[in-house]
Amino acid sequence: MEPADPVPPFDQSLWRRRIPILSSHVLMNACSHAPQSDATREAAESYLHSWNTRGMDWDGWMADVQGARRAFAQLVNADEDSIAIFGSVSDATSAVATAIDFARGRDRALVTEAEFPTVGHAWLAQERRGARVDWVPVTSGTVEAGDIAARLGDNTAVLSVSHGYYLNGAMQDLTDVAQLAHDRGALVYVDTYQTAGAVPIDVKATNVDFLAAGCLKYLMGIPGIAFLYVKPSLLATLEPLMTGWFGRVNPFAFDTRTLDWAPTARRFDMGTPPILNACIARAGIEMVNSIGVPQIRAWHEVLSARLLAGAQSRGLTVHGTTDVRHKTASTACVVADAGAVEAAMRKQHVLASARGPVVRLAPHFFTTLADVDRALDVLASIVTHRSNPPYAPSR
Ligand SMILES: Cc1ncc(COP(=O)(O)O)c(C=O)c1O
User: Model's pTM, two decimal places?
Assistant: First the structure.
């Protein structure tokens, strides 16, 4: 008798019922965009209703923003006071980069080539402030800790690492990279956009200095909001060059001539927060928190194993690591013309995500093993069909 398929450690059918698009599509694009759930839709509608009926409700809306901050803090085991809110991870990274002092013998930013481009750009822009960017290469689809260690020097001010590589899901061990950076007196900045909501994250246990994530992927939200964790012991030394009235000790002091700094991570906040986005983000993150990231991760590992075995048995070429413990939920298959393959999959109601030379299949907590098999079948049939176009007799 065949062994029974594993089942998720949560009531998956209950959660699936809360995501309407699952009735018509197989979603394998969690690395790119989360689906709408009843919770996120209700959150958006509740803001629109409040706006329409109350006209203005600053106290209620700021409480919603604070609720989003709290939900993210809970997600990464941080205190609420150590979380700042931005419009994107690009903004958060730039704010951190401008707060770092590249003088006094530490003028290097050590950045991995696995960063999402925007993160590399934020560090490169600091070259006008006297910083120099050194790069850690991607080798065989991953960034080796040894390559980081070899390039860290006493002149490194900050190490910038992506927790999950956007291209193929290869993961870094945050405790290890933080230790490596701290051993050389450097700070560590982590982009967790590809892991937040998919992999358990604990800022205290890992001892990272800065950690950013947006809500659009595994956090079940939308674009236009991102969170930044800043280690509390560093706050007093950090004054970002991008700032605004919400970063002040009292934003409502309306003192144009005084630039003071909130004692908490709120000093990184900028202007009026993205309220609608925060309402939706809060609902999405609370959904993830209530399922439980460790439970989600356990199911992702099952799905990854199925994806990797299924890709191999269908003759697909996987990009990067095949060790489920060292990758996110995303599995990347190398294809010719990834954009066209993504579009062809969509025609069959399977949403995947093209990036450079790969099509990424990124399931989430709502994904079934049947979804994985279907996505792989569709991908394999498209790839086979494209590389062996049907014989067309010449006239
Ligand atoms: C790892 C990672 N970092 C950053 C980003 C982009 O962040 P933002 O558009 O919020 O600046 C993405 C988007 O796909 C990403 O995957």
Answer: 0.96
